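Q: Convert this sequence to structure tokens.
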Amino acid sequence: MPPSTLPSRRGHHAWPWLAAAVIAVAAAPAGAAPATQALTIYSNPDDRVSIEAIGWLGLSEACPAVVEGLIPLQLRVVNGSARDVVVSIGADERWSMGEGTVSPRTTLRAPAGETTSRTVFLEALSWDQSGVVQRPSVMVNAQGAGPRVDVTVMARRAMMPGFGGGIVPTAPPVAQATAPRAYSSAALRLLGPPADGAWPPPEGGIGEGEIDLAAAPDDWRGFTMLHEMVIADDDWTTMPSGTRRAILAWVGLGGVLRVVAADDDAGRIDRLGLPRGGSDGRRRVGAGEVMVVAPGEETWGALHGKGGPAADATPPLEQRGNPMGWFGFTQRELPFAPILAFLTIFALLAGPVNVMVLAGRGRPARIFWTTPAIALVATAVLLVLMLLRDGVGGDGRRFTLALLDPETTAAHVLQQQLSRTGVLLGRSFPIRETSWMRPERVPTSVMPAPGVMSVRGAEYRELEGARRSGDWFRSRSDQAFTLQAVRSTRGRLVVSGAPDAPENVSSIDAPLARVLVVDADGRPWRCDALGAGERRPLAPATEADVDALRRELLTSAGPRIRMAVERLCGAPGIAWAQAAEPAGVAIATLDAIRWSDDRAWFVSPLAAEEAP
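A:
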């Protein structure tokens, strides 16, 4: 049975709902707590078909300070007709500002008489120089229909002076934005009101909100908008296991989860099923941490920078800066002298030589074939020069950090990469694992004039969640990305034997080039190459070795990896192991890139065992 199409005459029914949502949000007071929003964007009683958009972090004003992260948008199609409906989902195609948009493209088939859902993830991209944040929108329409239906996510917009009356999204500069934090209703009840009786507190109001954990997704990408989350202990014990796994995966990538305990009964807290504490009592998961806090004004003060034990638990991400500084790449310079020489020779051949010599002496008709011939030869010469100068494919530098968590049998992968391409014969590549790939702004030798925002930005397409295409990689250009992924693994590093003569055992399915261990008592140890299943004695190391490792890792670290290194390097009960074959650890992207500088490290909590 052929798929039905939604009649275009009904398409306008979505707009009153959209306008009402935007007006309601704009009229809400600043700092109002967003809740899960559901919006009917299409409804056709004749066809008995409706499309609903659901955002668990809100559809219009979830976190005003969000400058990075994936915005989860669930599309639900209720098809009460006798025919199948096919809905296409994609990003709104608008003129954007320089950095571009990440565009999910997928189709959703809703069988007759059924309700079908699909979640897409929209990227919140920031424009670092002015603090402007792109608030993306998604286009939804039935296959073969007329006018599309637009759903605008994070829709509050403001007039920007000097832009000719255009409407662009604005937000505080990155350096001034408070890290987005969300609270569950149960956590707010346990915490009680602050001393001044206001919530959110004035100094912490930006980027804060209330969440509905019942609507939370079971995909870690749905939490990446947040830097911290505050929930009650009852929330943790009653939430579905899939949501709990997703939250722990998000924590492992650098998030902070604060669990407000109703009382200080240590036995009851241990029975909550939270991650176990290390030798220093901290419940680390990858690069993040789960913290148990008590209700009261002291906790409110710690959460909002007024001192207390939790005040420095979440160091803010630094400004993203220049990704070329990650690996020492210099700015790509245009070869002005060769270009000038080529244009001069081409002008002489296509002009005087062509007219006076090739088509002269009574043969003016020759100009009709000599001119295109000269153009074709010049194009061929230009392509040969490009191939000789830039080559095919590209050169790249990549740094991967795989944070192992034996308790959840997961590896939380943080990666940064920078590549410089020549001529690319193909630009698309498969998505080999569920990942978040974020384009970073790369300075070029040719910058747009200040205030010019009419240039169409790059479009980074993700097709059916299986392939990335578009402008992720372009010929003769520089690209920088940060990537995140969560994998299943049972690999870990184990220390066994006597405390004064420990041995290291690896169950990581990859050869290791070197290992540096800080045991539970804070003493550093090291060993050389270590294979899977091998047992090697550890030699004493010094604090200078730990400092040298920290400097080595931070030299080329971007914000995400820097955060993980600063939180974990030197912490007790943590092992650092450099992979001998980093390509097997990295999140794969375009195969045409040759990685001239490829580094990967494993970070693992130590598991102590008795010597056999």
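The longest strand covers residues 593-609.
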